[in-house]
Amino acid sequence: AYREELQKLASLTDSAPVDKVNFIRAYAKAREAGMRKDIILSDWRFTGNWPINCYKALAHPEIQPDKEKLLEEFKTPSPPQLHSDDTPKTSRQVREMAKHRSRPTRQKYSKIAKGLEALEMKVAVQNARITSLEEQMAQVRRGKKRKAVPNPNRRFMALAESLATGEALPDSKGAEIEVDVDEEVESVIEVGVRSEDERDDFMVVTKHCQRTRSGREVKKPRR
To answer: Where does the record place Basic and acidic residues bias (predicted)?
Structure first.
């Protein structure tokens, strides 16, 4: 039937190529002529499917789907990527992504962009505050001066001169001269003068002072 229709068209169109419209018309007429009940039943008998078994026809290997496609359908989908280079990081990038999208989507993107702008302003203010505090700390460190520490050698020199000239010293058995030394010095020498009843001999006492964990000197109370 289809061949007959093509022959009719070829005689009318002078063997021109068949276009889509003529093909559909010829195929519809051939389908009406070929898809009749008696022809379909005879085809079932010829293929061996008699009495008719629909399951046998559906289980034919030529019409089964590919196993690879079935495995892909039942395969567990991989988790989405959490980190992507396309993730917007600024409000401007969010607004660029909102272009060429629907109106509700653009409204949502606009809200997200406003939130990012507020966060950007907050971060900028905090960074400026941190910078100013660092500058203040640097100025305080530069302006801090160390306390001047007297040189203890001058007192030792004065004591040696008085001993050499034989000047009178205070008449006290427990008199001691305390010397303030810098905190970096580990030991301090305390010099004291003692006078006995009938002699003018002098005694130099050397002691080691006690210090705290921070290195400060522990002074003894005067008697």
So the answer is: 83-99
